[in-house]
Design goal:
350 residues; alpha/beta; Aspartate Aminotransferase, domain 2; Aspartate Aminotransferase, domain 1; 2 domains; seven-stranded mixed sheet; three-stranded antiparallel sheet; 12 strands; globular; binds ligand TLP
Length: 350
Amino acid sequence: MIDLRSDTVTKPTPAMRRAMFEAEVGDDVYREDPTVNRLEERAAEIAGKPAALFVPTGTMGNTIAIKLLTEHGQEVVCDSRAHLLDYELSMVAWFSGCVVRAVPTERGLLSAEEVIRNIRPVSPNSAATGAVEVEQTHNMGGGTVYPVRTLCEIYDAAHQRGVRVHMDGARIFNASAALGIPVHEIACHADTVMFCLSKALGAPAGSMLAGPADLIAKGRLYRKRLGGGMRQAGILAAAGLVALEESPAKLGVDHANAQFLAQGLARIPGIQVDPAMVDTNIVVFDISATGLVPADVSAQLRGRGVLVNAINRRCLRAVTHYDVDRAQCAQAVEAVSESIAATMAFAKPS
Ligand code: TLP
């Protein structure tokens, strides 16, 4: 199978497995796991923040961050296709007691003007804005990358209005590779930043939440509340440390493969995707002009050995990562072309 459903499907590398086998461990709830402690220090350093917390998932990292930045009954401003809104089971409401003020955008990226327009004035009728959330890269926007200047403007605009910013940087290393700047130069435009070890970086599990020491100390208690006190988690942290040191340098290959994939898909009649808009490792392509249903095409492709997810009624999403190479991307383009032709022939009334 050529698995382009997500970069979450990456398997740990031999170096990660070795590090896991050899990891020194202790009980992390007592803060006695030396490998987790090392990972948290290293992640804080990379993000340019005073402290960091190892969490089992990106969802838990985002959930804790929003809880830290908001009070019950406030609003969170974010783009209307944010992962936080569409894929995290309303944790913003469930855990933090907030509602999302969703801003529709072209490619998932907010502007400072939009943020300003959506931060609500305190009045007898409106709930105060507790936080602004930005997603870097933006998943459903097609792996799009915020220019640093925009992040800086959003951060300043929010802070001038007494509102803090959380960055869902699940794929911040992809943004860093695409922009050619270190992660801390992106993360400095947010109060808290979450990034995943388990996506393009390839670790088997885990994400980091970085920010000010007092917030991270409080976040540690929320992590425990949510059931994220993982005890001898050094086994996982060891893989995370390898992921942080070895994987970022490989991301350019994934981006080049995504570009290759986008160019191939763009040549298939009925598929709409602009390769110039593919910034990183995610290719969202629109098949609505074929008249076909993405879920049907996804099922067809499975039969041809290619896994690609349908993400809505018009589009499919292909994500490149280190477990797919250029030749497999070429095969995937071929399979999509054949699948669309076959599904159209099948769908045609006789
Ligand atoms: N994204 C997954 C799915 O949930 C859609 C994927 O396959 O892309 N923020 C962003 C931007 C994400 O893309 C994801 C996962 C998360 C947060 C949540 O991370 P996990 O899965 O570790 O909870």
